[in-house]
């Protein structure tokens, strides 16, 4: 697992209060991990802080699963 | 109009001298001080370095970690006290009409810690506006009432009252009125506050409102003592279950006391200083007595606002003497803030509980830390110094006054058929 993937998982475990084993690439924030719309906004914000980048709203809306977050960040973090 | 009778059927307290109602009462009756050096932040540079903090609070015992993270401490505390009150009242949520159950909580400030941290974080950054989506809901003063309704399904009137240190008493009076007027049957009400932060202590220090007796925190809150030098900041929550008397009787509830009257006035004088002759304060006690259809002679105990400030204590006692006349010498007067510190918007909640338990247990909690008489107070008054006093109490009056010149008083009476 990449360093980015590890950090993403740690943030999700912390913010959503879920077990690490639940945080699979396919897991959807809202359907599988119990997040509501505000939780999702907070996750995006935490990713921005952690990786020091800005995720535009239209792209943030496309990030709904753990795997989507990891691939977005792997492609965009310099 | 025929007004309904309102009784108290449940209590919940989270205070600097006890995290449950029995522990709180134990602290009150034994004259325990809740003051100690501040642990919530490094207060080394502050003029005041102590406060009355709630101790050994395990929030996750009451609220799931994921939920707790979205709440400021003031909301967590209010929720914990509400939980105790609901359980104490023996309410079966399946059986009561939740559309006629409301929540009115008082908070003078709201989520000060959340506000301070988020704004500080922004100010330290490069100007990119990266605010947490929970920032606003954590900070706003009404959110505790919202969380309580979500947890228990109370769908009746729901809001916060904000009148500084009178907030919780205003909340209780509002709930009282809605039940009297048949707009609801039951309320969770009271107050919650958590402002022991850099901004809270620094702000009150700038007003010269806080005691600076850093060498002796436990003796710093000394209402009516000649050497009092300001209040001691406290935190916590006090919740009451108020209920229509017939509703309570029908479900066989235990009844602590009857809430018989409330008064509300303004000083219309100064933003922080009390009226020197205690005009608003005497009017508010008169209004509460009129509302209760009682005479001054019917009151046996006054739980004062009595914050231990040089001016406030004097004007309140003047007001009591004006209202009660000769009877002032026959009542017990005490300031439980000598033990709890000043819980600001939650003060009226915990002091209502102190007054109710005083009636129930026939014991007046003391004004601790009395060392030196102050000639500004009539020595014939019984200020219940240092030790609790046994006494049958027919009715007790509780005063709270807030910055802005808000005054609110309520009267609890021993329950009679």
Automatic annotation (TrEMBL), chain A:
Belongs to the acyl carrier protein (ACP) family. The modification O-(pantetheine 4'-phosphoryl)serine is found at residue 37. It is found in: Cytoplasm. GO terms for molecular function: acyl binding; acyl carrier activity; phosphopantetheine binding. Residues 2-77 form the Carrier domain. The keyword Flavoprotein does not apply. HAMAP family: Acyl_carrier (MF_01217). Keywords: Cytoplasm, Fatty acid biosynthesis, Fatty acid metabolism, Lipid biosynthesis, Lipid metabolism, Phosphopantetheine, Phosphoprotein. GO terms for cellular component: cytosol; membrane. It holds the Pfam family PP-binding. The keyword Phosphoprotein applies. InterPro entries: ACP, ACP-like_sf, PKS_PP-bd, PP-bd_ACP, Ppantetheine_attach_site. It comes from Aquiflexum gelatinilyticum. 4'-phosphopantetheine is transferred from CoA to a specific serine of apo-ACP by AcpS. This modification is essential for activity because fatty acids are bound in thioester linkage to the sulfhydryl of the prosthetic group. 4'-phosphopantetheine is transferred from CoA to a specific serine of apo-ACP by acpS. This is Acyl carrier protein. Carrier of the growing fatty acid chain in fatty acid biosynthesis. One of its GO terms (biological process) is lipid A biosynthetic process.
